[in-house]
Amino acid sequence: MSTSRRSFVIQSITGAGALACVALPHAAFAQALTDADPQAVALGYKADGTKTDTKKYPKYAAGQNCASCALYQGKPADATGGCPLFGAKKVAGKGWCSAWAKKA
Predict the structure, then answer these.
(1) C-alpha distances in angstroms, 48 versus 53, 93, 96, 101?
(2) Which of 25, 54, 60, 64 lies 20 to 30 Å from 48, alpha-carbon distance?
(3) What integer best gives the mean pLDDT of the chain?
(4) How many domains does one find in the chain?
(5) Domain for residue 80, yes or no?
(6) Contact by Cβ (8 Å): 67, 98
(7) Residues with Cβ within 8 Å of residue 11, at least 6 apart in sequence
(8) Which residues contact 88 (CB under 8 A, 6 or more apart)?
(9) Does 43 fall in a domain?
């Protein structure tokens, strides 16, 4: 009987460990978006919004950044956050792209 209990305990611990790994938020593993990413290039994304080409993107204005965008899914003080335009990749809070829209 003790062998059965021992097996049960070992399997329970193993199962709980596996469940904990699956339950980790996927955002913890999200990669940062780079300026060279094809989607980033298409939208004029720059991780440092102050380096935006203002001739190509005249809509850009000083003070606009991802953290102040309506699409930004992080807190305003976060260094990075999600954006539905870039899937699972995180954008820089100081970044900017041509889809920027003022947060309400």
Answers:
(1) 11, 9, 7, 17
(2) 25
(3) 86
(4) 1
(5) yes
(6) no
(7) none
(8) 26, 27, 30, 31, 82
(9) yes
What are the tens digits of pLDDT across the range 63-74?
A: 999 999 999 999
More reliable by pLDDT, 62 or 11? 62
**Enclosing domain of residue 56:** 27-92
- Rounded CA separation 100/104 (Å): 12
Residues 6 or more apart whose Cβ sits within 8 Å of residue 77 = 67, 93
* Span 42-71, average pLDDT: 96
What is the model's pTM?
0.71
CATH number at residue 57: 4.10.490.10
**Which pair of tokens denotes residue 28?**
């913890």
Q: Are 68 and 54 in contact (CB under 8 A)?
A: no
The confidence score (pLDDT) of residue 54 equals: 94
CB 80 within 8 A of CB 32: yes
